[in-house]
Design a protein that fits this description.
Blueprint lengths: L1 E5 L8 H17 L12 H10 L3 H5 L4 E4 L6 E4 L13 H4 L7 H22 L1 H22 L11 H14 L4 E8 L2 E8 H21 L10 H18 L14
Antiparallel strand pairs: 1-4, 2-3, 4-5
Helix pairs in contact: 1-5, 5-6, 5-7, 6-7, 6-9, 7-8, 7-9, 8-9
Length: 258
């Protein structure tokens, strides 16, 4: 199931949503130096960038200790002596990690969800409130992941946690909105309109299911996806949207197609 667009027009140009998308794209191609699949994951630049600016749960739960990827195979060492003068503060990485991605599909999928659902959430609260809502959603998402695995030495990165907060807000603001959705059925596909509440409820149920499976798999079979970050961000959006949203547009009526 792949959402394409919703049926709610925006009253104001979503300047913050567009700016966040632009910042993520610029960060991926020019700061991380990513490519179609991200380039060479064993490159010195990639590993250094990930070491410095990815958010390590271990660093956040062990103040003063710092993690670094020390081999091209991805071996991580976390200890007080690892920190270099060039490394940013540990408390900056939750913000920098929100603008990093692990590949073009990771980036593209996140930005598509942000564009479809973020513009209307921004419209409901204005640009300044939306900036705060988005960043707090990203922090809540990381907190969810750290709470579940506080000793993890795997760096987290991506905008999906913050975007999950946007999705949580959207489902409460516009549960009756409809989303044009691409659905794959084995070798075939079709495009249908589905209520936003159904699309987002299915998405959240998937995060809960895969997160639960992750907890029962001692080898960490989640494919590198931080499901509990998605859950934390979504729950934040549900809890905080009423405090941020100032105006909610009515959902356009759905007319029958002949």
């Amino acid at each position: 199931m792949f959402p394409l667009k919703d049926n709610i027009p925006t009253e104001h140009f979503p300047v913050v949503t567009v700016a966040i998308i632009a910042l993520n794209v610029i960060a991926y191609f020019f700061w991380q130096k990513g490519g179609i699949t991200f380039g060479d994951p064993s490159s010195v630049h990639y590993l250094q960038n990930l070491s410095d600016y990815g958010a390590f749960p271990y660093e956040l739960t062990h103040p003063g200790d710092h993690c670094a990827i020390v081999t091209t195979a991805g071996q991580v060492v976390c200890e007080p002596q690892v920190k270099l003068q060039s490394q940013p503060s540990t408390w900056l990485t939750p913000f920098t990690a929100m603008f990093m991605h692990g590949g073009l599909l990771h980036l593209g999928g996140n930005m598509l969800f942000l564009w479809i659902f973020g513009n209307n959430v921004e419209d409901s609260m204005g640009p300044i409130r939306f900036v705060a809502f988005y960043l707090l959603g990203g922090l809540a998402a990381l907190a969810g992941q750290v709470l579940v695995d506080p000793g993890s030495q795997v760096p987290t990165l991506g905008a999906s946690g913050a975007i999950a907060g946007v999705l949580g807000g959207y489902i409460l603001l516009y549960p009756r909105a409809r989303v044009l959705t691409l659905i794959f059925i084995i070798l075939f596909f079709t495009i249908v309109e589905i209520p936003a509440s159904v699309v987002l409820a299915i998405w959240f149920a998937q995060q809960l299911l895969f997160g639960a499976l992750d907890l029962t798999d001692p080898t960490g079979g989640g494919g590198g996806v931080a499901y509990f970050a998605h859950i934390g961000g979504f729950v934040f959006g549900l809890a905080a949207i009423r405090a941020f949203a100032q105006r909610v547009k009515s959902v356009p009526p759905r007319y029958p197609v002949y």
